[in-house]
Specification:
This protein is mainly alpha-helical. Helices cover about 45% and strands about 5% of the residues. The radius of gyration is 19 Å and the shape is globular.
């Protein structure tokens, strides 16, 4: 809602350009973007569109793991091996999904779930990004540390205060087994290392 206690559940890409983000108080959003149009949530409609989305995806990629109301991981190994021009196939998939549901989707493709998720966030909307292991340095390292999937809103500013501004900055310390990073991440240290090495989970 629009009162002092209102929270932004989601926002357009244009609003994001003004700094508006999901989870932000609505009063702050209207300060950043005075021309913002605030609409009430329609959860029945969201659920309907979510079901349409997943039903469409499941027909093409039966092995699926639902991650949120509008996001999922799929095992596309078989299709990728069978189809000669897999990128073109995925672009046709995006168009068919939009024609059927009026929903736009961005796709990330990688050998691990982490890399697929990172790829899906790079180009929005209707983006398609492949991140093979050999391209991790080229694609991920220049990205801001805030973009690292799994590093929270609390940790990212702390890392910046330590001079770790990009994913590449973090990788340099992680792969040198920096004691500060081992202490900071604890049990998560080896997970972060695996993510940056393209060796994290690929199980859907």
């Amino acid at each position: 809602h629009q009162g002092r206690g209102g929270i932004v559940s989601t926002c357009s890409y244009k609003a994001r350009g003004f700094g508006v983000r999901s989870g932000m108080p609505t009063y702050k959003a209207t300060i950043l973007c005075p021309e913002a149009i605030l609409l009430p949530g329609d959860y029945k409609f969201y659920e309907k569109k979510s079901n349409e989305f997943f039903e469409f995806v499941k027909k093409i990629f039966p092995i699926i793991e639902i991650a949120s109301i509008d996001e999922c991981f799929v095992d596309a190994t078989r299709k990728a091996n069978e189809i000669l021009d897999f990128p073109s196939y995925l672009k046709r998939f995006q168009k068919a999904l939009f024609d059927k549901t009026q929903l736009k989707c961005s796709i990330g493709v990688g050998p691990t779930k982490f890399l697929a998720k990172m790829g899906s966030d790079i180009k929005k909307p209707m983006g398609l990004t492949f991140i093979p292991k050999e391209k991790i340095k080229d694609i991920l390292y220049p990205l801001p540390i805030d973009d690292f999937f799994g590093i929270g809103k609390k940790t990212a500013p702390e890392l910046k205060n330590e001079g770790i501004n990009t994913i590449g900055d973090l990788a340099k310390l992680i792969f040198s087994d920096d004691p500060k990073m081992i202490k900071r991440f604890g049990k998560m240290y080896f997970y972060v290392k695996d993510c940056l090495d393209g060796e994290s989970s690929d199980v859907v």
